[in-house]
Design a protein that fits this description.
With 107 residues, this protein is of the alpha+beta class. The protein has one domain: Alpha-Beta Plaits. It has two helices and four strands, in the order βαββαβ.
């Protein structure tokens, strides 16, 4: 399993619309791509009103390293451009790829 983490800082005034777009369009489009298994949308509650943005994190799980390579080479730019067209200048993003994830559960 591969974990692909997208951390976003979204401007306060755009935040509600941006989160709705993630929930109703973007994440579903990404999950329809080859190799994607699941996504977790993490929304930070609160935050200082004087801050210019709110944090959002999306944690995707992909089946293997080949899947993330395919995504990066064939689909990533197209997915990023959709967000930039719709919300230009309203967010910033950082991305990380973790090639090994070890899961633990409580008993």
């Amino acid at each position: 399993m591969v974990t692909y983490i997208v951390q976003l800082a979204v401007r306060w005034e755009t935040y509600p619309e941006y989160v709705e777009w993630l929930k109703n369009e973007h994440i579903a489009e990404v999950l329809a791509l080859p190799g994607f298994i699941k996504a977790e949308l993490c929304l930070r509650k609160g935050g200082a009103m004087e801050a210019s943005s709110k944090d959002v994190k999306i944690i995707y799980t992909l089946k293997d390293e080949d899947a993330i390579k395919t995504y990066m080479s064939e689909y990533a730019m197209q997915m990023r451009e959709k967000g930039l067209e719709k919300f230009s200048g309203q967010f910033s993003a950082q991305r990380e790829v973790w090639l090994e994830t070890i899961n633990f559960t409580s008993k």
